[in-house]
Amino acid sequence: MFKGKFIDLSHKLRPDKEEYHLRLKSVNTAERYNQYIVEEGFWYILQDMEMSSHCGTHIEFPYHHNKNGLDAAAFGLDRLITPCVLLDFRNKKPNEAVTIEDVKKHDGLIQTGDSVMFNFGVAMNYRTENSHIRPYLSMEAAEWLAGVKKINLIGSDASGIEIKGVPNQPIHQYLMEREIPIIEFANNLNALSKSRFMLFVLALAVEGLDSCPVRLVAYEQE
């Protein structure tokens, strides 16, 4: 038995309502596959799903910005279930940087190899016209997290941590060259009561997939 609580950190997905598309088409199973027999009046469907790999709460694997990087199938399960630290940056304003000085204040909390989740307090903007209004991570902060603390992955409740208005997404490039994935559009970070927890990133192991919508789950031990 688990002596703690699980917290869902992902947004529920709504077909035909997502910025990054999600569409479902239901078909009668027997009409698609003739080995099944379905009598009239019985409900037995399957669905075709057309979905962006960046729909909803998702993890971007290194292959997204590194043609030789790990994709969804190659990325190790031991790196998708890991200790995680929550950093509270709800004080940051839109387009304000999280600096190296900001993250160094948490040096004692962040252990080598941790996953790191930033709470910018913007999850309520998901699926609204303000969904891309957010702070960002400075390059110096990214270099310190990746180079000194050797973090496992990084994420936030925002649409990203990338520097805005510059070409080629330099934060993505830097992290993914080092096989560090990025989680975007996390949810419910305010429901966490501890700064350290176990993070479960439940992604599909699809070969050649650059990114994947996930059921993102936190486990807080008693």
Structure explained in plain terms:
With 222 residues, this protein is α/β, with parallel strands linked by helices. It has four helices and 13 strands. The strands form three sheets. Strands 1-13-11-5-7-9-10-4-12 form a nine-stranded mixed β-sheet, with helices on one face. The chain has a two-stranded antiparallel sheet with strand order 2-3. Helix 4 (170-177) links the parallel strand 9 and strand 10 (182-184). Helix 3 (139-147) packs parallel to helix 4 (170-177). The radius of gyration is 19 Å and the shape is globular. The mean pLDDT is 97.
Short characterization:
This protein has 222 residues and is an alpha/beta fold. It has helices spanning 29-32, 100-104, 139-147, 170-177, and strands spanning 4-8, 22-28, 45-51, 58-60, 81-88, 97-98, 115-119, 136-137, 154-156, 182-184, 196-202, 211-213, 215-221. Helix 4 links the parallel strand 9 (154-156) and strand 10.
* Class from helix and strand fractions: alpha/beta
Distance between the termini: 12 Å
CATH-assigned homologous superfamily: Putative cyclase
Tell me, what's the shape? Answer: globular
Which sequence of SSEs, written as H and E, runs from N to C? EEHEEEEHEEHEHEEEE
Assign the CATH topology: Glucose Oxidase, domain 1
Strand order of the largest sheet: 1-13-11-5-7-9-10-4-12
Mean pLDDT figure: 97
Q: Could you tell me the strand content as a percent range? A: 25-35%
Helix content: 10-25%
Main sheet, how many strands, which sense, barrel?
Answer: 9 strands, mixed
